[in-house]
């Protein structure tokens, strides 16, 4: 896990540098200025790398050493509980439905996008607050 975190930190920095250089070059040499698809996409790649690196770093602080960090480790040592998940949760279904409606709304009609936002907000809030209310409340 430690190596994976380092790799994603490096990827995040790399894509950030590439985004800066790409933005500068397209601003300088394109007639319409900064290219509006590639530049945000490379920035999103950088953000994704940083988010995964941060998640792995926080998991590393919580669990000191993973089986993948041991050079003599076996695959079977990684068996067991991988996290805390609520059983029978409907929240991912609502969130996925909202995301699907949002993507469909961009292609078919913006009024569908509004319904997708409503579904997505409901799914996200119910997933975040899942352990605060109901059967699995702490």
From TrEMBL:
Biological function: Part of cytochrome c oxidase, its function is unknown.
InterPro entries: Cyt_c_oxidase_su4_actinobac
Subunit-level organization: Associates with subunits I, II and III to form cytochrome c oxidase.
GO BP field: electron transport chain
Compartment(s): Cell membrane
EC number(s) on file: 7.1.1.9
UniProt topology in membrane: Multi-pass membrane protein
This protein's name: Cytochrome c oxidase polypeptide 4
GO cellular component: plasma membrane
TM segment ranges: 7-25, 37-60, 93-122
Coiled-coil spans in chain: none
Source species of the chain: Brachybacterium avium
């Amino acid at each position: 896990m430690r190596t994976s975190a380092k790799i994603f930190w490096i990827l995040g920095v790399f894509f950030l540098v590439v985004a800066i250089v790409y933005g500068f070059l397209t601003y300088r040499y394109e007639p319409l200025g900064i290219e509006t698809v590639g530049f945000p996409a490379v920035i999103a790649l950088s953000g994704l790398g940083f988010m995964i690196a941060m998640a792995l770093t926080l998991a590393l602080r919580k669990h000191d050493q993973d089986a993948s960090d041991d050079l003599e480790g076996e695959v079977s040592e990684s068996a067991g509980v991988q996290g805390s998940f609520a059983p029978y949760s409907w929240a991912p279904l609502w969130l996925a439905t909202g995301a699907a409606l949002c993507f469909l709304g961009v292609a078919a009609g913006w009024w569908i996008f509004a319904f997708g936002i409503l579904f997505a907000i409901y799914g996200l809030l119910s997933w975040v607050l899942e352990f605060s209310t109901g059967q699995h409340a702490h």
